[in-house]
Design brief:
With 209 residues, this protein is an all-alpha fold. The protein has 11 helices and 2 strands. The termini are far apart.
């Protein structure tokens, strides 16, 4: 696309700057300038996709949570660039001639993608886990069987975080989940993570000792 046609609405540009300032207050490791430069880098790198259609007159919630074939093809084009590409899609869907719907809009877009395309990939692990708990086998055996079927421990860990955040568990299932999470970080050697849910779940085991 001709670079002359790659133009952000002025109101959106101003709000991207404001968003970068807000983000820098939460993420102390990066300045507002660095965050804003990252936005511009993504917009420039993926310009053909980002500027592929005229900007709508105002924010449209349907547009923000609906993923077209173009959106999905763009996201799936390079798995190694997934984080950058999903961020680019989120920005694009929340920009209009009125500005950048940076707070609610970006949350809605991210959540919509997660529910439509990520969550269905995670559910088979939680379904298998709940079925294995009912058999009465140990946490070690449960994790071994999950690894046989799903192989990647990191993926299993992600699935457990989603499962734990999304369910109210009875005592038996909750205990097994805690034990499996502990095994992932001990016997499996999975690096310590900063996920609060993971820490909270593993802390329950210490209190039982």
């Amino acid at each position: 696309m001709d670079r002359k046609k790659r133009k952000l609405p002025k109101a959106a540009l101003e709000q991207l700057i404001s968003t970068a300032e807000d983000m820098s207050k939460e993420d102390k490791s990066r300045t507002a300038k660095e965050i804003f430069k990252e936005y511009l880098r993504l917009i420039d790198k993926y310009g053909d996709y980002f500027f592929s259609e005229p900007w709508p007159k105002k924010f449209d919630i349907h547009r923000a949570i609906t993923f077209t074939r173009e959106d999905l093809d763009f996201i799936d084009e390079n798995e190694d660039e997934f984080a950058d590409r999903i961020q680019t899609v989120i920005m694009k869907k929340n920009i209009s001639l009125k500005g950048y719907h940076s707070i609610a809009g970006t949350f809605w877009t991210r959540q919509a993608y997660y529910k439509q395309f990520i969550k269905p990939r995670l559910k088979p692990v939680s379904d298998a886990f709940e079925a294995l708990v009912k058999t009465g086998i140990s946490a070690e055996e449960i994790l071994a069987k999950l690894k046989e079927e799903f192989e990647d421990v990191e993926f299993i860990h992600i699935c457990f975080l989603d499962f734990l955040d999304d369910h109210f568990l009875d005592a038996r299932v909750d205990l097994k989940a805690s034990e499996v999470m502990e095994l992932i970080h001990t016997s499996e050697g999975f690096p310590e993570c900063e996920e609060n849910r993971c820490k909270y779940q593993r802390e329950k085991l210490k209190k039982k000792v």
